[in-house]
Each structure stands twice: as C-alpha cells, then as structure tokens.
Amino acid sequence: MDDGDLVEESACRYDACVTLPEGFEQEAHRPQVEFKTVSGGIYAVYSYYDTVDKLVLAYDSMFSVWLPRSGYEADDRPCLEFCLNDPMKDQEGKCKVDLYIPIKQRV
Fold first, then answer.
1. Fewer CB atoms inside 10 A, N or C side of the chain?
2. Mind giving me the DSSP string for 35-67?
3. Cβ neighbours of residue 43 under 8 Å, at least 6 residues apart?
C-alpha cells in the first residue's frame, strides 16, 4: 500500500493473503479473519529473484521503465506479490517473487 521509497520498510502497510480452496467455510473464521476477492483483469508479471532489500527496484523498473513504454497504464487495483520461496532457506538468501502489476490499455 505504501511506496518503499517514501516509507520506512518497518512502517509499510500491506495485506497478507492466502489462496483458499473451493468450498472453504469462511463463516467459521469471521470476524477474526477478513476475506477479500481479488478482481480479475490484465496484469503485467515480473518474475523477481534477488535479495528482499532490492525488491523495491523491481517495482521502480516496472513503473518507471516498462510501463511508460508498454502501451498500457497502471490500473487502480492493488499490486500482488506471489512469494514462491522462503529467503531464509534459499542457498543465496534471495527471495523468489512474481509481481503482478494491474494494467489497462492506454487511452
């Protein structure tokens, strides 16, 4: 929710999510857990593999380099990060993340 260039990492706000299987009984977990549905649409995907502290550079690259040249513009849906490993268990201490940037056709 916050720009990593403007807000200290420890103060950045975000939603942590998991994908639930079909038929998951949500009502049994309310009100302790908030449920949201991610809206569909077009996303640009950036596969990232490096240290966590450089992840903000991937966002910078997508928004300041790729997006202006792409023919698309940013949509106002939230960006998504799919964490594909545990950096603490990675041999190089790196995280593997797919960044999903919501986009729409430039008008």
1. C
2. -------EEEEEEEEE-GGGHHHHHHHIIIIIH
3. 80, 100, 101, 102, 103
Domain of residue 87: give its range. Answer: 9-105
Q: Find the helix or strand (DSSP H, E) in which 95 lies.
A: strand 95-105
**Which phi and psi angles does 44 have, rounded to 5°?**
-90, 135
Q: What is the CATH number of the domain that holds 67?
A: 3.20.80.10
